[in-house]
Design brief:
357 residues, Rossmann fold, nine-stranded mixed β-sheet
């Protein structure tokens, strides 16, 4: 965004900041009610409008917790075609429940997945549909204060820390920077894998976590690509021509990773949460034909893949060489076990309190 336009938008940011401040103040003073649930609830969200890597962190928590507890996720269901509360079942698609909830449902068939704009009403319904639930993960719930989570995790991106950002539309924050005080744990995401202790200390000093807050640093690790239709794994060879087709908030880390695998990488970018049409598949095919390499592939993300499932038959007919690349969260400075213990201590304490009552 150019500088003159940003300056014009600044008054709107001030206005939006006042509105969100009033709303948060009403919650802080108890005028607007936050509902407490006995069941352990972990909120994962951010101060910004997207691109922090929230979904891989929720998936990390699902993998960690489903080995020990019955897990449920509750999301708003952004950009879906339905309204109200829905419980994911075999009829669910990205259109009906949203792409991120569909991703959870597709990748983790043993958990319960619910969506609902009014989370304070949706959570009791989810617990009725999945009565064995022992832990609930609240997706993108940092600003949705109708539920008071037992543990509030806030994610901020390494290349765009909330401390350096501004409220929309001048910046990308959904509320004032001071909102970080609600977080119990802060995760700096998308850090370089080789980040050193000096940079870590500099960021810690800048964020200046409060006494009750834990601070962690994570990076993204990409896994082996697998075929969209067959799930067969594929190794990216150095001479491969790669066309990246994705609709995510920040594709830059993925591009940087793929450029380390191959010299010829092109991006076909779509809006975040975009629902693909058949003519988009034609664009992918055209882009593929323009690559110079003899062996070519289309690479997309797992979040895009659940939206592309709506065109699965067309993709099969066109025989597109479409591959999905998974991404996983990796905790830096050997803090993975420390974070895991932090999560388990909260859950065990909340469950003990739940049964005492």
């Amino acid at each position: 965004m150019n500088k003159p336009l940003r300056i014009l938008l600044f008054p709107f940011s001030l206005l939006y900041g006042v509105i969100t401040w009033i709303r948060n103040t009403l919650y802080d003073r108890g005028i607007l009610t936050e509902i407490n649930f006995d069941i352990p609830t972990i909120a994962v969200g951010n101060l910004s409008v997207g691109g922090t890597g929230k979904t891989p962190h929720i998936e990390y928590l699902i993998r960690l917790l489903q080995q020990h507890y019955y897990v449920a996720t509750l999301s708003r269901g952004f950009n879906r075609t339905t309204k109200g509360y829905l419980f994911a079942d075999e009829t669910a698609t990205a259109l009906t429940i949203g792409d991120e909830p569909m991703q959870f449902y597709h990748e983790f068939p043993d958990i319960a997945v619910g969506v609902g704009e009014r989370r304070g009403l949706a959570l009791p319904q989810l617990l009725m549909d999945a009565p064995d639930t022992e832990v609930v993960l609240l997706d993108d719930a940092f600003q949705h204060r109708s539920i008071k989570p037992g543990l509030n995790l806030m994610i901020t991106e390494y290349n765009r820390l909330f401390t350096k950002d501004f409220i929309v539309p001048f910046g990308r924050l959904r509320e004032s920077r001071q909102g970080y005080a609600r977080a119990d744990g802060i995760i700096v995401s998308k850090c370089p894998l080789d980040m050193n202790a000096g940079t870590r200390q500099k960021i810690r000093k800048e964020i200046n976590p409060m006494a009750h807050q834990q601070l962690y640093f994570t990076a993204l690790k990409y896994g082996s690509c697998y075929h969209f239709l067959t799930d067969e794994k594929e190794t990216i060879l150095p001479g491969t021509g790669i066309m990246v087709a994705c609709g995510i908030a920040n594709p830059q880390p993925l591009l940087e990773y793929l450029l380390m695998q191959s010299k010829e990488v092109k991006l076909l970018r779509f809006p975040d949460h975009y629902y693909y049409r058949e003519d988009d598949l034609d664009k992918m095919q055209d882009g593929l034909s323009q690559l110079a390499s003899s062996y070519k592939m289309i690479v997309t993300t797992e979040k895009d893949a659940v939206r592309l499932r709506l065109l699965e038959e067309k993709i099969a007919v066109m025989k597109l060489p479409l591959f999905v690349i998974p991404m996983n969260v990796y905790f830096l400075f050997d803090e993975g076990e420390t974070f895991n213990q932090y999560i388990f201590e909260y859950i065990n304490g909340a469950r003990a309190k739940q049964y005492d009552e």
